[in-house]
Design brief:
3 strands, mainly alpha, single chain
Length: 90
């Protein structure tokens, strides 16, 4: 079996022939690390946003409620955008 660093090949000639097998374990681990980092960033963002909303609400309840509604509105809009983007409608 031969390797080019990213793939292993079953034949001795290299890339031209044979079954190509990916190093799935490394790829899956990287995906897992990216997802974990993304979740951590999202949690920090949500904590900071909610802290700012609470701080604003202490001064003006109406403005704080507006920020909460805007956050929910943006979640819906982004979800729809992702839905259309993944379906290649844009």
């Amino acid at each position: 079996m031969m390797s080019d660093g990213n793939r292993e090949y079953d034949d001795e000639k290299g890339r031209g022939e044979g079954k190509i097998t990916e190093k799935a374990g490394e790829k899956d681990e990287l995906k897992s690390q990216v997802q974990k980092s993304k979740a951590e960033i999202e949690n920090v963002y949500n904590f900071l946003f909610d802290s700012m909303v609470n701080l604003t609400s202490a001064r003006s309840k109406e403005t704080g409620e507006h920020l909460k509604r805007t956050k929910e509105y943006m979640k819906v809009m982004l979800a729809k955008y992702e839905e259309f983007y993944h379906e290649n409608l844009f």
